[in-house]
Amino acid sequence: MTMVKTTVALGAATMALMAAPAMADKWDMPMAYSGSNFHSVTGAEFAKCVTTGTGGDIEIVTHPSGSLFPGAQIKRAIQTGQVQIGERLLSGHQNEDPLFGVDSIPFLVSSFDEHAKLFEIAKPHLEELLATQNLTMVYSVPWPPQGLYFNKEVNSVADMEGVKFRSYNNATSRLAELTGMLPVTVEAAEISQAFATGVAESMVSSGATGYDRKVWESLSHFYEVDAWLPRNYIMVNSDVWNGTSEANQNVIKACGEIAEYAGTWRAKEYTGFTMAGLSAGGMEVGRAGDQLMGDLKAIGETMTAEWLEAAGATGQAIVDAYNAAE
Ligand code: PCA
């Protein structure tokens, strides 16, 4: 009898709670890439995980395709509290600090495993730098290896002279300059149009981005060169983070860990899948020839030296630790 009464009383209390729920905190999460891209899919799952895990205390709403802020503005929007959280390719901000370009040094790493080793070493430095900008890193997911797209056959850097090249960060603009191409910055969400209208005729990017944007409609060749693997970073405004309960912070961290694992796994799976997709779309897909590869490696050495010069002791320490690691 007592038990029944208790159960009824508890039931009534639950009903009362449900009738007057605590106001959910809504966090907007701008993302620059199309909703179908694996980063955006991972972000949407992360958002769901947080909403479920915090019992609805925090509701994260993702805005893919640059619909709330285009890529280039997302970092600032988080820093200044216009949004609580967001995803950004940090190498797009290398002009603020060379460390943001650590994942875009040509030919330092070429595979997911090498890249993971570099990231592990660089991560604490990045977190420290982000903290000075009022940003807290939650998770980060790599893009697949970067290759070169053209609308013609290319066998050497000489063949690139004068080509209009779509860039997405400092390293890609510099690559264009050093190869005699003409850089034009275009967000991923806009590239199909840029290629269709001839604003750009080439880019360095992953098979994933070419596939997502159906670039075979305008371009004909994809050369695998594995130049680098840049990363997207999910960051929270540090004031928002510090105002979040420890319990909810723990949920967000745990959801971030799952997202980083799942996103990385997707990036690997997507690499082969999207190469096949580009081929099926009618593109010539394959490894760059020796001449082109040799030319690019020489340019990579110049860019690596430039990065080390700009990044000073911290940059050197990261690269040394990377080279010394097993
Ligand atoms: N896709 C993004 C960045 C790196 C990548 O593979 C882009 O092209 O903008």
Automatic annotation (TrEMBL):
Pfam short name (any one): DctP
Keyword entries, A-Z: Periplasm, Signal
Predominant location category: periplasm
Domain of life: Bacteria
GO biological process: transmembrane transport
Signal peptide region: 1-24
Segments traversing the membrane: none
A GO CC term assigned to this protein in UniProt: periplasmic space
Subcellular location: Periplasm
The protein's name in its UniProt record: Alpha-keto acid-binding periplasmic protein TakP
Organism: Pelagimonas varians
Lineage, opening ranks: Bacteria, Pseudomonadati, Pseudomonadota, Alphaproteobacteria, Rhodobacterales
